[in-house]
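Notebook entry, structure prediction.
Reason for the run: the old model in the group folder had no record of what sequence produced it. Starting over properly, with the input documented here first.
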Amino acid sequence: MASLDIVTIANEKSGSIDLSSTVFEAPTRPDLFHAEVKRQLAKRRRGTHSSKNRAAVSGGGSKPYRQKGTGRARQGTIRAPQFAGGGVVFGPVPRSYHHALPKKVRKAALRGALSHRVAESDVTVVDSLSVDEYKTREVVKVLDALSLGGGGVLIVIDEPDDKLQRSARNIPGVTVLPVAGLNVYDVLRHRKLLLTKASVAAIESRLGASEVAS
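New structure, fully documented this time:
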């Protein structure tokens, strides 16, 4: 069972915490990372692209010229794909790119991503984290004190905190997520994780009781 130090926002040690081996010592599965990130990014696609085929293009109701005697190939409409302004062959149509992935696979991927960050010593746990007002500099001050300045930090809190989330959203490379929104893509694209003691418990509650994908 892995153990991490708990520090204050002033980077002073205030205790330690034992991490669940089920959640934070899970196997690292790049194949599951790929499947889950692909699913997440596909779901974000709007799929509103569209084009007109020859049936949807206006005009072209009569033959452009007579069938025989012109020396040219016979044509039935100027809205055929070979004409400028004609319909598009096999063009994009509105669609959803979303595809399903088993929940146990998604959870196994998230466990693996968290475990990878722990194994790389990229996880910092604080006893609590909050700001008293909507001030970006307050969050910057905390990150600098924890040696996490410079971006590439995912802050995970147990419950939504409007002041903290809005104060951090202007900092390049810094994202704040509640445990309910924790996902593989954000864990992997941020080099460092900043967790609160409460968020660790919430993560273990969310992922600890489920089956590990074989």
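Summary: The helical segments are 21-24, 30-44, 103-119, 136-145, 162-168, 184-189, 197-207.
The old model has been moved to the deprecated folder.
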